[in-house]
Give the backbone structure.
Amino acid sequence: MTERTIRLEVFRYRPEQDDEPVWQSYDVPCREEWVVLDALNHVKDHLDGTLSYRWSCHMAVCGSCGMRVNGDPMLACKAFLRDLPDRIRVEPLDHFPVERDLIVNQDRFLDSLSAAKIWLIPRKPAPEGEEYRQSPGELAAFRQYSMCINCLLCYSACPQVGLNSGYLGPAALALAHRYNEDSRDGGRLRRNETTASNEGVWECTFVGECSEVCPKHVDPAGAIQQMKLASSIDWLARPFRRKDPPS
Amino acid sequence: MSMSNKPLVWLPFAAGGMLAALVLPACMLLVLLVGLGALPPETLAFERVRAFAANPLGGLGLFLVLTLLIWHAAHRFRMTVQDLGVRATGARRVVAWACYLAAALGTAVLLRALIVL
Amino acid sequence: MKGSPYHPVMPANWWLSRPSYARYLLRELTCVFVGAYAGAWILGLNALAGGRAGWEGFLAMMMSGSGLLFQVVALISVLYHMVTWFELAPRSMRLRVGGRSVSPMTVIVGHYIVWAAVTVAVLWLGVM
């Protein structure tokens, strides 16, 4: 099995001892099929047990190991060393406060999920004693947007997230769209209070980088553009609606 | 938070952007070809253009296209200035007003010209 | 300050850090030429309303060396706007015809077909 020595340059920040972040280099003997996460695990197991980072499934479904690899937001478990050079810079996701090393504070995102009401607000009660049926076409309308694993790569990639601290962000908005497009849901107007506010879809300028980095091909940029059009129609229809529903 | 009034400027932006993509290249090509001598200069003769602009349909077309184009540019420019570094709320408001005021001015000048014609 | 999270600061030249960001900014700046060209024509129509002399003065300016250069640069800019606008169009609209999604390529090609028809119409109208 051919081995390759990779130099990992890792962003370190230990609030109890560091005023500023520092970079620390590790030379890691790697197997050719490894991903960046394997290299990090080797560092933690054999070289430096103090290195802190999040990871779980190691198969790109949990969304835990999001970080920047040579500047690009990626899942560490999906960043194959065979696609990367011998020197790899690893740093936390951009635009979030860094708690420690590669671990970011996600409160902003979790608050956005609540603000955008990321749950089903049923249009009518579920049928008694049977499933709430949907046709394949009804499922297809929202399925893509339900694939989000909350990995936050899109937040790291989006310059508007960095420029505007109140912006709800790509994933929260794409998930709102997932529910708005669900035939069982009746909560679009309620979600509009935040998703159609100045901190919602209107902060987006369709840079499109969010969709480029999404490991699940959710296309949040597309979701947001569709929401802009839908919100505009809702806005035009305001004087004709009897009354907006309570929040 | 409440529903934003952004659609008021976003809808013209979107319409203007579509026009800028669909209609503008052809118009620009036409004018450029006249300038380069590939088309006769009479194409843009005073009487011809005047007749077109004075015609109710021609005038309406010119008004809609040109208005939407400048409002598209105003909104996009405003957002770009924000991207390039203007982050304070007060400064952003000034930029927004300046952009839309310029577009409104352009609209007023255009309307006056078309009414005279 | 020890003990608190590190807050990254977004640099003023953030758009230079990735090629896609630079392309985005270039795309957005096409609006400068759209606005300038439309603005020029608003002034042109204003000159037209003022009479023959005003109109011919305006044409002379537009067809001068620097005027033609402006026209060429503006046209290139608007063509870049067109290409990027059409490229993004399918993402903004999800069309379903007869239960099947319309493919993005169909949407883009549809836009170009309309563009071609409009271009022919405008050129024909212009020279007629």
